[in-house]
Write a structure and sequence with these properties.
Number of domains: 2
Strand content: under 5%
Low-confidence stretches: 1-17, 110-114, 119-124, 198-209
Structural class: mainly alpha
CATH architecture of the largest domain: Orthogonal Bundle
Helix content: 55-70%
CATH class of the largest domain: Mainly Alpha
Number of helices: 11
Shape: elongated
CATH topology of the largest domain: Rna Polymerase Sigma Factor, Chain: A
Order of helices and strands: HHHHHHHHHHH
Largest sheet: none
Protein backbone atom coordinates (compact mmCIF):
# COMPACT_ATOMS: atom_id res chain seq x y z
CA UNK A 1 0.00 0.00 0.00
CA UNK A 2 1.24 3.43 -0.83
CA UNK A 3 1.58 6.01 1.86
CA UNK A 4 2.54 3.48 4.51
CA UNK A 5 4.27 4.67 7.62
CA UNK A 6 8.03 4.59 7.37
CA UNK A 7 9.93 2.56 9.97
CA UNK A 8 10.64 4.71 12.99
CA UNK A 9 13.92 4.44 14.89
CA UNK A 10 11.93 5.05 18.07
CA UNK A 11 9.90 1.94 17.36
CA UNK A 12 12.43 -0.50 15.94
CA UNK A 13 15.49 0.43 17.96
CA UNK A 14 16.51 2.68 20.80
CA UNK A 15 19.06 5.45 20.55
CA UNK A 16 19.93 5.10 24.23
CA UNK A 17 21.99 2.08 25.32
CA UNK A 18 20.38 -0.41 27.65
CA UNK A 19 23.63 -1.53 29.25
CA UNK A 20 22.87 0.37 32.46
CA UNK A 21 19.27 -0.87 32.70
CA UNK A 22 20.25 -3.88 34.82
CA UNK A 23 21.14 -1.73 37.84
CA UNK A 24 18.07 0.46 37.35
CA UNK A 25 15.81 -2.60 37.03
CA UNK A 26 17.30 -4.09 40.18
CA UNK A 27 16.52 -0.87 42.05
CA UNK A 28 13.00 -0.70 40.59
CA UNK A 29 12.34 -4.26 41.69
CA UNK A 30 13.26 -3.22 45.22
CA UNK A 31 10.56 -0.54 45.09
CA UNK A 32 12.74 2.41 44.08
CA UNK A 33 10.23 4.82 42.54
CA UNK A 34 12.91 7.02 41.01
CA UNK A 35 14.42 4.01 39.22
CA UNK A 36 11.06 3.02 37.77
CA UNK A 37 10.42 6.63 36.72
CA UNK A 38 13.77 6.53 34.91
CA UNK A 39 12.69 3.42 32.99
CA UNK A 40 9.38 5.07 32.16
CA UNK A 41 11.05 8.21 30.77
CA UNK A 42 13.48 6.13 28.71
CA UNK A 43 10.88 3.87 27.08
CA UNK A 44 7.51 5.68 27.21
CA UNK A 45 7.79 7.48 23.86
CA UNK A 46 8.68 4.30 21.99
CA UNK A 47 5.85 2.40 23.67
CA UNK A 48 3.36 5.15 22.82
CA UNK A 49 4.52 5.16 19.20
CA UNK A 50 4.13 1.39 18.95
CA UNK A 51 0.69 1.45 20.57
CA UNK A 52 -0.37 4.17 18.11
CA UNK A 53 0.84 2.10 15.16
CA UNK A 54 -1.01 -1.00 16.34
CA UNK A 55 -4.37 0.42 17.42
CA UNK A 56 -4.42 3.78 15.65
CA UNK A 57 -4.36 7.27 17.19
CA UNK A 58 -7.38 6.50 19.37
CA UNK A 59 -8.32 8.52 22.42
CA UNK A 60 -7.49 5.57 24.67
CA UNK A 61 -3.87 5.25 23.62
CA UNK A 62 -2.49 7.20 26.60
CA UNK A 63 -4.50 4.97 28.93
CA UNK A 64 -3.04 1.95 27.13
CA UNK A 65 0.49 3.25 27.63
CA UNK A 66 -0.22 3.66 31.34
CA UNK A 67 -1.60 0.11 31.48
CA UNK A 68 1.51 -1.19 29.74
CA UNK A 69 3.76 0.28 32.42
CA UNK A 70 1.49 -0.90 35.22
CA UNK A 71 1.72 -4.41 33.80
CA UNK A 72 5.47 -3.94 33.33
CA UNK A 73 5.86 -2.96 36.98
CA UNK A 74 3.96 -6.05 38.07
CA UNK A 75 6.01 -8.25 35.75
CA UNK A 76 9.41 -6.92 36.85
CA UNK A 77 9.94 -9.75 39.36
CA UNK A 78 9.67 -12.28 36.51
CA UNK A 79 12.14 -10.46 34.26
CA UNK A 80 15.41 -12.38 34.20
CA UNK A 81 17.18 -10.60 31.37
CA UNK A 82 16.65 -13.39 28.84
CA UNK A 83 15.50 -10.73 26.34
CA UNK A 84 16.39 -7.07 26.04
CA UNK A 85 14.32 -4.90 28.35
CA UNK A 86 12.81 -3.11 25.34
CA UNK A 87 11.72 -6.45 23.85
CA UNK A 88 10.20 -7.52 27.18
CA UNK A 89 8.37 -4.20 27.53
CA UNK A 90 7.16 -4.07 23.94
CA UNK A 91 5.90 -7.65 24.20
CA UNK A 92 3.61 -6.36 26.95
CA UNK A 93 2.60 -3.46 24.68
CA UNK A 94 1.74 -5.83 21.83
CA UNK A 95 -0.37 -7.98 24.17
CA UNK A 96 -2.13 -4.88 25.47
CA UNK A 97 -2.85 -3.74 21.91
CA UNK A 98 -4.22 -7.18 21.05
CA UNK A 99 -6.56 -7.17 24.05
CA UNK A 100 -7.77 -3.68 23.14
CA UNK A 101 -8.39 -4.57 19.49
CA UNK A 102 -10.15 -7.79 20.42
CA UNK A 103 -12.38 -5.96 22.90
CA UNK A 104 -13.20 -3.24 20.40
CA UNK A 105 -14.03 -5.84 17.77
CA UNK A 106 -16.48 -7.44 20.19
CA UNK A 107 -18.14 -4.10 20.90
CA UNK A 108 -18.51 -2.86 17.35
CA UNK A 109 -18.63 -4.04 13.77
CA UNK A 110 -15.71 -1.76 12.95
CA UNK A 111 -15.18 1.84 11.91
CA UNK A 112 -16.07 3.25 8.52
CA UNK A 113 -13.95 5.57 6.41
CA UNK A 114 -15.40 8.64 8.12
CA UNK A 115 -14.21 7.36 11.50
CA UNK A 116 -10.80 6.56 10.03
CA UNK A 117 -10.49 10.10 8.69
CA UNK A 118 -11.25 11.38 12.17
CA UNK A 119 -8.44 9.20 13.52
CA UNK A 120 -6.04 10.57 10.94
CA UNK A 121 -6.92 14.12 11.96
CA UNK A 122 -5.59 13.38 15.46
CA UNK A 123 -2.19 12.12 14.32
CA UNK A 124 0.79 14.04 15.60
CA UNK A 125 2.66 16.08 12.95
CA UNK A 126 5.71 13.84 13.29
CA UNK A 127 3.71 10.83 12.14
CA UNK A 128 1.60 12.70 9.63
CA UNK A 129 4.68 13.92 7.80
CA UNK A 130 5.61 10.31 7.05
CA UNK A 131 2.60 9.58 4.86
CA UNK A 132 2.03 10.63 1.27
CA UNK A 133 -1.43 12.05 2.02
CA UNK A 134 -3.89 12.08 4.89
CA UNK A 135 -6.51 10.39 2.74
CA UNK A 136 -4.17 7.45 2.15
CA UNK A 137 -3.58 7.13 5.87
CA UNK A 138 -7.31 7.27 6.62
CA UNK A 139 -7.90 4.62 3.99
CA UNK A 140 -5.23 2.42 5.53
CA UNK A 141 -6.86 2.64 8.97
CA UNK A 142 -10.22 1.79 7.44
CA UNK A 143 -8.74 -1.27 5.74
CA UNK A 144 -6.90 -2.38 8.87
CA UNK A 145 -10.22 -2.44 10.70
CA UNK A 146 -11.21 -5.35 8.44
CA UNK A 147 -8.41 -7.54 9.80
CA UNK A 148 -8.53 -9.75 12.87
CA UNK A 149 -6.39 -8.38 15.74
CA UNK A 150 -3.74 -11.09 15.31
CA UNK A 151 -3.36 -10.52 11.57
CA UNK A 152 -3.45 -6.75 11.98
CA UNK A 153 -0.66 -6.73 14.57
CA UNK A 154 1.53 -9.11 12.57
CA UNK A 155 1.00 -7.09 9.38
CA UNK A 156 1.80 -3.76 11.03
CA UNK A 157 4.93 -5.06 12.74
CA UNK A 158 6.35 -6.62 9.57
CA UNK A 159 4.90 -4.67 6.62
CA UNK A 160 4.54 -1.22 8.21
CA UNK A 161 7.26 -1.02 10.87
CA UNK A 162 9.74 -3.18 8.99
CA UNK A 163 10.41 -5.72 11.76
CA UNK A 164 11.97 -9.00 10.71
CA UNK A 165 9.95 -12.17 11.19
CA UNK A 166 12.20 -13.05 14.12
CA UNK A 167 11.67 -9.65 15.77
CA UNK A 168 7.91 -9.79 15.25
CA UNK A 169 7.76 -13.36 16.53
CA UNK A 170 9.60 -12.35 19.71
CA UNK A 171 7.14 -9.52 20.33
CA UNK A 172 4.02 -11.54 19.53
CA UNK A 173 5.12 -14.71 21.24
CA UNK A 174 4.58 -16.92 18.20
CA UNK A 175 6.76 -18.81 15.73
CA UNK A 176 8.22 -17.08 12.70
CA UNK A 177 6.14 -19.29 10.42
CA UNK A 178 2.96 -18.29 12.26
CA UNK A 179 3.83 -14.61 11.90
CA UNK A 180 4.63 -15.11 8.21
CA UNK A 181 1.28 -16.80 7.58
CA UNK A 182 -0.62 -14.05 9.38
CA UNK A 183 1.15 -11.37 7.33
CA UNK A 184 0.45 -13.21 4.08
CA UNK A 185 -3.21 -13.69 4.94
CA UNK A 186 -3.52 -10.04 5.97
CA UNK A 187 -1.91 -8.87 2.73
CA UNK A 188 -4.23 -11.02 0.63
CA UNK A 189 -7.24 -9.78 2.58
CA UNK A 190 -6.25 -6.14 2.14
CA UNK A 191 -5.52 -6.56 -1.56
CA UNK A 192 -8.90 -8.22 -2.06
CA UNK A 193 -10.60 -5.14 -0.64
CA UNK A 194 -8.32 -2.75 -2.52
CA UNK A 195 -9.05 -4.34 -5.89
CA UNK A 196 -12.75 -3.34 -6.11
CA UNK A 197 -11.88 0.23 -5.12
CA UNK A 198 -9.16 0.41 -7.75
CA UNK A 199 -11.58 -0.90 -10.38
CA UNK A 200 -14.24 1.68 -9.51
CA UNK A 201 -11.82 4.60 -9.48
CA UNK A 202 -9.74 3.61 -12.52
CA UNK A 203 -9.99 6.04 -15.43
CA UNK A 204 -10.70 4.71 -18.94
CA UNK A 205 -7.64 4.38 -21.12
CA UNK A 206 -7.56 7.13 -23.74
CA UNK A 207 -9.15 6.03 -26.96
CA UNK A 208 -11.51 3.51 -25.33
CA UNK A 209 -15.09 3.82 -24.14
Amino acid sequence: MRGRLAPSPAVISHSQPESDDAAVIAAARQGDGAAFAHLFRRHADAVRTRITRLVGPVAERDDLVQKVFIAFHRALPSYRGDARLSTFLHRIAVNMAYDYLRGRRDRTDGQDLHDAEALAERLSPALEDQVAARTNLARMFALLERLSPKKRIAFILVAVEGCSLAEAAALIGATEDTVKQRVLHARRHLLAHLAPTATRTARPVEGTS
